[in-house]
Amino acid sequence: MKKKHYIILASVTLIVILDQITKQLIANTMNQFESIEVIKDFFYISSHRNDGGAWGILGGEMFIFFLITALAFGLFYYLIKEADFDNKKLYSFSIVLLIAGAIGNFIDRLLFGYVVDFLDFYIFGYDFPTFNVADIALVVGVTIFAFDILKEDLINARNKNRSRK
Questions:
Q1: pTM exceeds cut of 0.85
Q2: Which of 19, 114, 116, 142 is placed for a possible disulfide with 104 were both Cys, Cβ 3.0 to 4.6 Å?
Q3: Domain coordinates in residue numbering, the chain
Q4: Which residues are designated catalytic?
């Protein structure tokens, strides 16, 4: 196995372990819908179960989530071939986060039929949907991936303009 594969495997494993430990801690120590105030009117640890996607969409439609996850893993298999921690740090890190986030939530859906969410923020009076460590990995991974693609496109466009002059 190549060095990059060890880095990917170790990183994904650490994130998935952190995700699963935090979810089990919440599930084993808090009743569902129980909430602990951390920062008044801003941040709470709240025990929730989500059998849907973001914002609870498609609740109870596990087949769709299994299908989406299978497609995502197929895409990750393709994308991971381009991982290069020496020359493509952002791209590689984003793929690690995407894989770890997908695995973390897939484990919950497979074992329980729902995802344990517990990070609950009120932002400017809006109760933002509760989320977990896997969700953080997915959102940050997608953001970094998109930023990296845009950065590469801007560099390529700039180089094309320079070569025309």
A1: yes
A2: 19
A3: 3-158
A4: 117, 135
